Structures are given as structure tokens and as C-alpha cells.
Amino acid sequence: MRLTAKILKKPITSALIAIVCGFLVAAVVLAAAGYNPWQAFGALFSGMFARPKYISNVLIKAAPIILTGLSVAFAYKTSLFNIGAEGQYIVSAIVVTLLGIRLNLPAPLLIPVLLAAGMLAGGVWGGLVGLLKAKYGIHEVITSIMLNWIAFYLSNYIVNLPAFHQPDSTGTYPIRESGYIMLLPNWKRSPQGMAALSRIPWLREVMMRTDVNFGILIAVFMAVLVGFVLYRTAKGFELRAVGFNRDAAQFAGIDVGRSLLESMLISGALSGLAGCVAIMGAAPHNISTLAAFENNGFNGLSVAFIAGGSPVGCIFAGLLFGGFLYGGQTVQADVGAPSEIINIMMGTIVFFMALSKLISTLADRLAKGSALHAE
Amino acid sequence: MQISDKYAVQMRGIVKTFGSLRALDHVDLDVRKGTIHALLGENGAGKSTLMNILYGLYQADGGEIYRNGKRVRIKGPNDAIRLGIGMVHQHFMLVENFTVTENVILGREVTNSLGVLDMKRAREDVRRIVEKYGFQVDLDAKIEDISVGMQQRVEILKALYRGVDVLILDEPTAVLTPQETNDLIGIMRNLAAGGKTIILITHKLKEIKQSSDACTIIRRGKLIDTVNPQTVDEETLAAKMVGHPVRLVVEKTPAQPKDAVFEIDRLSVRDKRGLPAVKDLSLKIHRGEIFGIAGVDGNGQNELVEAITCLARAESGTIKINGEEIQNTTPQNVIRHKISTIPSDRQRHGLVLDFSCEQNTILEKYRSGPFSRRGVLQNGKIAAYAEKLIREYDVRPSTCALQPARSLSGGNQQKLIIAREISNEPDLLIAVQPTRGLDVGAIEYVHKMLVHERDAGKAVLLISLELDEVLSVSDTIAVLYGGSILGTFRQDQADEKTIGLLMAGGKQHAVNG
């Protein structure tokens, strides 16, 4: 019984319970709408895992949302709610696209320049929020939401500038190929590459049929790096102290305003990196007119939440989310159930994560109950 | 003792465990009807836990509760109130922009036959209680406009309005001025005379002697004794509470002040609303001297400390440590100039409660060696340092290094702060209300540390609302009133009466310099 209670109190347990609840609720909704839940879930998982290229696409889809998840999780450690990840992602995508079209540089130069520019753009967009909070005490949620919309319309304005707009499309020109971060793009299309790949069918499928790229490696690396910065460096110590108790941090000589600014800068840069990975890593390598937010940033909120704010947890939560987003298309195609069922599942999971306090309370009850039995 | 209906409340063999901690270990309690019964114990001794069980907030793991001689089960506060047991917590639960009457009747509204609120009748009911027990409360004032002492009376009224016979007061005087404390004791007496039973949770010996008919002492979850406080002296009570003899008088040799190290010259500071709070204040503190500032709360103490620590702007004047001006710089600069502060609100300003004790020990020093190198924290060094402080300053439990500071008792939280600040080896140590909310043992410890720092040749600035504390610990005593120092005395020349008058803004009759 004690062991059960202990297991129940682990954060990962509440995440797993929340995920199970997500499936249960989705099953009920599906059944009520006249679909077979088993069939739908079967389609979901086969859409994620049935073929190597599906798995590859899940990873491609997951990379940006792992990064925006990290962005939100990082800010949260400083007790800032970065609902502006979406806007930071968008401005980064704009800057990367513009520079990627205009700068005629070889790959070893262009890739670092674009990554730096995207992170800088996101960082400025986030830093602005931090600055307004530090200087004038304006709540970050208000400014973030406004900056999201500014980024949104800025993006649509730039997409339609004649200099960048690709005729007869809804988007800009793609960025130069030297800005792509796909895995060995030239080799895989060369005769030797083709020959080598033809011997390993699964690898061939992954390499040739998907935009397999460095995004997921970048995301995993950043998750580890963010974890290290937060928990092992003096800067992370400072930011977390500010997050837990602003007054005590100030009293101890920490410059709270600067910490808020730095935290939002870093958080924004992480969302910016997500924008880089999305544009540089996968087709169509451009930005197009937005009818609504694409939710790469907002999904980061859910990812950070499911991960319980843990940077490494964001990897798994992001993969889960990416998988659902990608596999959800199969649900629609195979079973006919609308892919919105995925949103219901994600919503339910987030909802039950919010209830995870309840689970640990129940665990306490359980532990107490067993203690009574023991006496 | 027999279970009998002479007792309003009897508890038998109460056991309560939190995790691996046994908070209460077979505790008995017998409270006679119509008496004031004090529950005395150090912070974390289990007295609040015992009362939370009686009020149904916690469920005991074992034991029985009897009300008027009958066995009862209390599963929640609603059960407790139904049995006539009410509790007033340290933190009030009042609706700020409701009137006193509205707050009192909230949840028990009086309505007429149509279900419409009958405020007139409600007000009449409340007024009757107020008059019966001699409360002084304006029934139509809003909560946000009345003093903390008044708000507490509203909480008591709420309980009485619900027909409570047994009233539990949790550390009721912690937030009160001496005058309000006397008023409260008066009200408690009236209530007891009117047949109500009062259980008073406290660690203040003076109040127990002034108010209570019986006193039960709890130490580390165990029942120690129940005594008649009128026949037992304070030293004995204190010894029973902490488990060893305690000195209630501060022991120290005469001060041997050396050169002045800290100087404030004509300092003026405005408060958050922009009103003058510190006016033209000057003072000088020497090495080897404890400089105490006495005064009633709200006379500029907070603003003075905030100006010294650079959390607030000094409008004019200078603050000098070792001859260097530090006013209007940054808190970090103040710490660098060897000023350390034990803040009055240890949970808000002193500690990051969600950080481990270990992390809290380096809160001011994490940036530099040996605790971080090239920006990376050196966990081994930090752990060794924290271990050393915890051992030297006897922070308990001794295994707390990796536990959150939140898990420590108030006294041990304070020890942790003192350890951190003193180990900065400051030239000036500022202690603001350093013993607030602490029990006798911890108070003795804090005072000893202040004297120890003085004897090590440091300057100490003690700011406290407890006149007794300022008088007994300080070598030089200044009285702060309306943002100015009205008089400065040497300890041997300070008498309580003169200083008390100055604290109330009275003219200084005998100028002792």
C-alpha cells in the first residue's frame, strides 16, 4: 500500500493517469458519435508507428513543440506565464524566411546565421514582454497576447509583400536550400546515396519520403541544456529563486527586474528556435498567409503542462503531442472520425494534469489508511 | 481523570502521524467548563495539531474525543460547530469589503418568510452578543477599514453567532499590540464568566499567567503536564515547555563600544503612498554595541530598514558604512559593504521556502567562488558549507539540508537565516523583529547570538516592537516615533516608563542623552 502511494505521488504517474483518462474520455466521445473507439485508436497508433516514415514524421512534427514546450517551461520556473510562445515562434519564422530567401551564403554559414537570427527574433519578442514587466509591472499575459496578434498580422503583411510573395500561392518563396537542416540532403539524392539506401528499405523510406532533419536532435539537446542551466548553474539558481519568492530574492541582492528580462529573453529564444526548426527543417520551408494561429506555441503550453514543467519531460510530452497530431490525420482518413478528437484527448489530458494534486491527495489518504491498518 | 460532564472537552490518547513524524503521541486533555485553558508548547510541539483535530480539520489516527462527557466523532468543522466547538485561526477569513455584521452572519443569514435577507434582525442579534460580552466593535464598519485587533473580534463574534460554547484561539496575540492584547484578555474573561469555555494556544508565558485557569504543556507531541498557572512561575513553565532550564533574562557584560562604523545622517524616506515616513533621522552605531530601536508598529521602522537595504529610495540624507555612502544603490551593494539583515518577515524576505535549506544558505553567495565556478554551481562545496552551518547553528532536524525550508519550524527557519547572515561576517548586523513568533528557547538563542556578535566587535542594529526585548538586549536604546528618534538612552539609564511615554509620542521629560 505504501509503495502504491509512493508511486502515485510521482509526477510521471499523474501524467500517465491523465493520458489514460484522455483515452477514456475520447473513447466515450467517439462511441457517442457512433465510431468504434478501438478502431479509432488503432488507426491513431498505426498512423504513428505502422511505417518508418510515420515515425519519422512524428519526430519532425514533435521537434518544434518540444522547443516551445521548453520555452514555456523555462519561463514558468521564473513564475512567468509565457503565453506568447506563439508570437515568438511566428516572428522567428518571419525573420528566418526573409533572411533565408535573401542571404546568398553557403550552408555552413547560412545555417548558423539563420538559427541565430531566429533565436534573436524570438528573444526580442519575449524580451519585450520581460522588459515591460520589469520596468512597468505590466502583466506578461496581457503583453504576450497582444504581441501574438501583432506577430500574426505582421506575418500576413510580409507574406503578401511583392518582394517575397510567390506568385499563385498563399505563401512566400521558400528559403534557399543551403539553409535546410535536413539530414544529408545532397548525398541521399546522389547515385551513391541512392545505391546505399536501396539496400536498407526502412532507412530509404525515412530518408527519401520524409524531411528527416536535425530538429529532434536540437530539441533533445536543448532540453538537456535547459535542465542543466536551471538546476546546475548560478544563473538558473537565481532565476528559480526569483520564481519561487521574488521578495526574498530581491532582499538577497538579486536584481529581480533583470532576471525577469533574462528569463523572457531565453524563453523567447527557445520559441524562436522552434520557428527556425520548422522553417529550415521541413517543407514547404516558407511562411504562408495565416487564417488562424497554427498553435505551435500554444501547443507548447500543453506540452510544458503535461511535462509538469520538467525540461526532459517536455521531450516525451512533445513526442506524445506530435504523435497525436500526426496520427490524428489517419483517424480521420481511415475511420472517418474528425481529427478534432485529438484536441479533445489533449484537452482532457491537460485537464487531468491540472487535477494531479487530487491524485497526490488520494495517495496521502491511501498511505494513511495503510498506516492505520498497520497499528 | 474520569470522563464527566463537568468537562466541556476531554481528549484521550490522541495519536497523529504525518509521514514518519509522530506529531501527537497519546495526548490527553481535560478542559473544564467555563474556564480559560491554555495550551503551551514550542513551535511544532503539536498544540495546533491537537486543536485542529478537535475542530475536525485533521482526523486523529487514534484516540477518543468526549464533549460534555459523551463520546463524539468529529469528521469536519461542520461537525465541530454542531457540537458547539469553534476556532479562530491566526489568519483571518473575512470578506474585506463586507461590513462587520455581514461577515458575522455570512453563511447563517437571517431571512424573512420570503427568503429575503433580514439585515435589521441580523444586526440586532449580533448587537446582543456584542453587548453581552463587552466587545468594542463598530458593526457597520467595513473589514478593510478596521484594525487587526478588531478583525480578530469579528472572528470571535462569528463563532459566538454560530452558538459556539467552546472557543479555540490559535496564537491570538501574535498579531496584536500590547494594548489590544489586554483588551482581548478582557473579552476572554467576560466570555468565561458568561459560561463559555476557551482554549488558548500560545507560547507566551506572560499571557498565560494573566488569563488562564489551567495550562497544559505539550512537548514534541507528548503531554508533559497540566498545571495551575497562577501557582507556577514563568521559569518553571518555560522549563517544562522546552525540556531544560531557561534563562528569561539576557546575560551579557557591559558594552565596550569602539569606533562608529555605521552612520545615518538626516535621512528622510517616504512610504509607498508617498507620505513622509522617516523624517530627518540621524543615528550612529559603534563596533561592539547593540543599538536598539523601540517604537510602536508603523512609526517608520519598515521604511528605515528598506532605505538601509536599498529596497526603498532615500529622499534625502546619507547612510554610511565604514565611511562609504550606500544610500540609493542596490541590495547587492549593501550586502557587499558588509551589512547583513535578518528581516522581520522571514518567510517573505528571508527564505525561499521552496528551496532546500542548503540552497537557502547560499542565497546571497551563489554567484561567486567557492559555490559556483564559471557559472556552474559546485554542489559538493555547497553541501559541505550547508552541513557546517546547520551543525554550528543547531538547525533542526540536523538532516534538513535537502528538505525544503518550508518544512522547518519557525524557530529553525530563523536559525537558518541567522546562520546565513552571521556567516557573511558583517560589520553591521541588522535584526528586525528577530524573535517574532518564536518560542522561549529560540528567543534565548537569538538574543545570545546578537550579544555574541556584539562581543565579536560587530555593530548590531536591533529593531523590535517588543519593548521588553529592546530594553533587555540593547546597549543603547532609541525611541522611534513618527519617523524621528525622540530620545536616545544608555541601557542603564533607560526606564520603561519614560520610554513608554516617548513611544506614544509624549514629550521627553528626563533628558538622559
Structure, described:
The complex is a heterodimer of chains A (375) and B (513). By secondary structure, chain A is mainly α. Chain A has a domain at 62-311. Chain A has helices at 2-9, 11-32, 37-49, 52-77, 85-102, 107-136, 140-159, 191-198, 201-209, 215-232, 234-244, 246-251, 256-281, 296-306, 311-335, 340-354, 356-374. Chain A is globular, with a radius of gyration of 22 Å. Chain A starts with a helix and ends with a helix. Chain B is α/β, with parallel strands linked by helices and 513 residues long. In chain B, the strands form five sheets. A six-stranded mixed beta sheet of chain B has the order 6-7-8-3-9-10, with helices on both faces. Chain B starts with 6 loop residues before the first strand and ends in a 10-residue tail after the last helix. Chain A binds chain B through residues 232-235, 237-238, 240-241, 244-245, 247-255, 368, 371-372, 375, and chain B through 17, 61-62, 309, 311, 330-336, 341, 343, 348-355, 359, 362-364, 366-367, 371-372, 375-377, 379.
SSE topology:
The complex is a heterodimer of chains A (375) and B (513).
Chain A: H1 2-9, H2 11-32, H3 37-49, H4 52-77, H5 85-102, H6 107-136, H7 140-159, H8 191-198, H9 201-209, H10 215-232, H11 234-244, H12 246-251, H13 256-281, H14 296-306, H15 311-335, H16 340-354, H17 356-374
Helix pairs in contact in A: 1-17, 2-3, 2-16, 3-15, 4-9, 4-10, 4-13, 4-14, 4-15, 5-6, 5-7, 5-13, 5-14, 6-7, 6-13, 10-11, 10-13, 10-15, 14-15, 15-16
Chain B: E1 7-18, E2 21-32, E3 36-40, H1 47-54, E4 62-67, E5 70-72, H2 77-82, E6 85-88, H3 100-105, H4 119-133, H5 148-161, E7 166-170, H6 178-193, E8 197-202, H7 205-211, E9 214-219, E10 222-227, H8 234-242, E11 260-270, E12 276-286, E13 289-294, H9 301-308, E14 314-321, E15 324-325, H10 331-336, E16 339-342, H11 346-350, H12 357-361, E17 372-373, E18 376-377, H13 379-392, H14 410-422, E19 428-432, H15 440-455, E20 459-464, H16 467-473, E21 476-481, E22 484-490, H17 496-503
Parallel strand pairs in B: 3-8, 3-9, 6-7, 7-8, 13-20, 13-21, 16-19, 19-20
Antiparallel strand pairs in B: 1-2, 1-4, 4-5, 9-10, 11-12, 11-14, 14-15, 17-18, 21-22
Helix pairs in contact in B: 14-15
